[in-house]
Structures are given as C-alpha cells and as structure tokens.
Description:
By secondary structure, the protein is mainly α. Helices cover 59% and strands 6% of the residues. α1 (2-21) runs parallel beside α5 (125-148). The radius of gyration is 17 Å and the shape is globular.
Amino acid sequence: xxxxxxxxxxxxxxxxxxxxxxxxxxxxxxxxxxxxxxxxxxxxxxxxxxxxxxxxxxxxxxxxxxxxxxxxxxxxxxxxxxxxxxxxxxxxxxxxxxxxxxxxxxxxxxxxxxxxxxxxxxxxxxxxxxxxxxxxxxxxxxxxxxxxxxxxxxxxxxxxxxxxxxxxxxxxxxxxxxxxxxxxxxxxxxxxxxxxxxxxxxxxxxxxxxxxxxxxxxxxxxxx
Length: 224
C-alpha cells in the first residue's frame, strides 16, 4: 500500500509540474488522488495491482498531451516498444534497475525476494519493487525532458522490420546517457537536505533493510 501510494503520488506530481508549466489543469491528477485513497482499503495484492493498473491508464493518457505529436505516444507498451517514448522509458527503467540492484547487493540483500512482484518467476523482484517510485519521479521526467527539448528526435530511432519494435540508435543512446548522468549527479532538496539521486536510491534500500530488521513502516520516495 505504501509503495504504490508513493508511485501514484509521483505520477500525479509529474503531471502537475508539466501542467503548471503550460498553465493547464490536470484532470487525471484528481483521479489518481482518489485511487490513492482506495489503496488503503484493499486487503490483497490483486486488488492493489488492479488500482495500480487503472492509475497507470489515466497517467499515461495524460502524459501523452505533454509530448510531441510525432512521438505517436498513446500509452505504455513494451517488448517491443512501439514508439520512441516507450523505447526510452523501457531503456531508462532498465538502467535505474541496474543501479538499484547494485545497491541491494551492496547491502547483502537478495534482489529476488520482493513483496509487490513476489509472484513473478525468475525476476529481480525486490529491484522491481524499489524501482516503482522512481519510474515517474526520475525516468519519465527525464524522458519527457529529452523529447520536449528536442534532444531526442526522429532520427535517433529505428524500427525493427521483423517485430515492428522501435529502438534507440547508438547516437540516441549517447544523448540519453549524457542527460542521465547529468540528472543522476544533480542536487535536489529532499526532507530539508540537499542530496543527489544516489543518496536517495541507497536510502530506499536502507529503508527496506530497516523493515526486515525492525518491522518498521517503510518510507518510499515522494517528489516534492
């Protein structure tokens, strides 16, 4: 419940920021807030994931309005990604998952034992769990920025003729990682401190370690 509340909150905050920059209203934000409240009245994992799925539908539909029309983004798709935005999202999720798994192993935790993705076979379940609040809070925000500032353009993507998927070119990956590293090293204010993302990711792992050792209530990352 707390993990998905943080995920949905960050989806709302990203949409609010994008809407404020364009002096627009965000109807999806109110819907997501209502769904956040429902999370705490559910008593099993399937119900929680159902709410997560409904929120994702509203979130990605709203996000499409803040992206260039040539991207042809209409919602989340993967394996393969069918448009440039989904290609970058999937790529960024994979990169940050690697960073989080490194920190999980650094603290001697097994990334295969999660709590939200625990039913998925042969996956780094805990990595996927702790990634959730950073999908919108880091990855989607970076993705939108790359397209809206025209750093990634049509020529940075190619279509696979066999499966119809869209993939990032080597030059596109170079641009992506330049932006990734800049954001990764950037400083932000969080809980009255000026810190970087590495600190936040590490703290997220430490929070879960504290849950295991002391049965405490975890605090997951929420955007300011």
